Amino acid sequence: MKKLVLAILPLLLLLGACNQDTTTYAEIETEFGTMKVRLFDTTPQHKENFIKLAEEGFYDDLLFHRVIKGFMIQGGDPESKDAPANKPLGNGGPGYRIDPEFGGIHVKGALAAARQSDQVNPQRQSSGSQFYIVQGQVQNDVMLDNFERQKGVRYSPAQRELYKTIGGTPNLDNEYTVFGEVVEGLEVLDKIAAVDTAPGNRPTNDVKMKVRIIK
Q1: Per the confidence metrics, is the pTM higher than 0.85?
Q2: Which among 46, 175, 190, 214 counts the fewest CB atoms within 10 Å?
């Protein structure tokens, strides 16, 4: 019996390890409050990269440099740190890009990777650091039917319900990588999306962030 227990023990330990919760959360702190986001295991490259940069302090004191009410808020450009008001932003990064990991949908609160346009980035690779959080607008079945035909996607009843209740930007589905979602603090997203902006969609008063990982 003792030998049997010793033989089973490693298997139980292995199973226990396999069943451990691998969910990772991040907190994005701003003057308007804190958003808690869950990072998706289904986008491992983006998840690992975001964790790495956050733990290095890369995002601390960077700006949400592009804010469009009813669409999204974008940040993560390292050139935005202490940037003067007239400095063009949106082209900075850590010096690399990430291959796309499509599959998530752009409902309100989706955390997604920004990227350059198809004309200069036909592979649709993600920026190494810039991200956006979707605000979007409420959709209806006619709109979603059109997006399904245009994009060759099929929304589940649950996904349709999300788009029809909390809203989003389905026109971006399968074109940008969604690698997380806001699970707490959607009201913070709405507050940032409502700030006054200058031409170019940069807030007239800087909106800084700090990002930390919660495991």
Answers
A1: yes
A2: 214
